[in-house]
Design a protein that fits this description.
Elements lengths: L1 H30 L8 H24 L9 H28 L1
């Protein structure tokens, strides 16, 4: 059971990292007019990624100012997610595995 919980937490953190990276790439593609919102699939994908990543990014967007139109909050959130992943794997994961097996 402990291994399953550790895997689940690691997978969720990994998915959030992928979603943030995909959202950043999609925003760059919109900014450089490679793709546009008129495409239904792209619009739905952008809405999905925005709704998934907004709860993590929004508090940092309020604190960190925009640097010349560049939003660095995804970088900060990615660093914090990697930190949380390493911290969880080094401290909480061994305790969960020892406790639950």
């Amino acid at each position: 059971m402990g291994y399953a919980i550790v895997w689940l937490v690691d997978a969720v953190i990994g998915l959030m990292i992928l979603f943030i990276i995909a959202s950043a790439i999609l925003s760059w593609l919109f900014a450089f007019d490679v793709i546009n919102h008129r495409n239904r699939f792209v619009s739905q994908l952008a809405n999905f990624l925005d709704s998934v990543t907004r709860p993590l990014l929004e508090p940092f967007r309020r604190i960190i100012p925009s640097l010349g139109g560049i939003d660095i909050s995804p970088i900060v959130v990615l660093l914090l997610l990697q930190f949380a992943r390493i911290l969880f794997m080094r401290t909480a994961a061994p305790a969960l595995i020892a406790l639950l097996g």
